[in-house]
Amino acid sequence: MSAYAIGNLRPTSPLHEDVFVYMEKIQSTLDPFGGRFLVHNATLEVREGAWREALVVIGFPGIEEAREWYDSPAYQELVPLRADHIPGDIVLVEGVPLGYDAGKTAAAFREAQAQAQ
């Protein structure tokens, strides 16, 4: 099942030189774990709420690969180049399996809620 590293970043302007170095080197840390950028420096079209941050989404074959990438010495060496200059939040999350049905999940939540009352 696919997994994702999601960054909710708040870049400052102008960007620090370290951020450019981070961007130039990050792909080489992703390659051994099958990681690839799915969203990076994209224009966001906010439909609800307020979103002022930059969104980054990196896809991986699975959650283990995402964890191994984040914890790898190669990536950990780069983290300060970004984190020292761009505050934000980073999460790793598993995707849903092929054929996922939100209606079935709603039914399970409804049943669990009814049993809890």
UniProtKB/TrEMBL annotation:
* Residues of the DUF1330 domain: 2-96
The record's Pfam families line, in alphabetical order, gives: DUF1330
| Domain of life of the native organism | Bacteria
- Signal sequence extent: none
InterPro entries, per database record: Dimeric_a/b-barrel (IPR011008), DUF1330 (IPR010753)
| PANTHER family cross-referenced by the UniProt entry | BLR0684 PROTEIN, PTHR41521
Designated name of the protein = DUF1330 domain-containing protein
Source organism phylogeny: Bacteria, Bacillati, Actinomycetota, Actinomycetes, Kitasatosporales
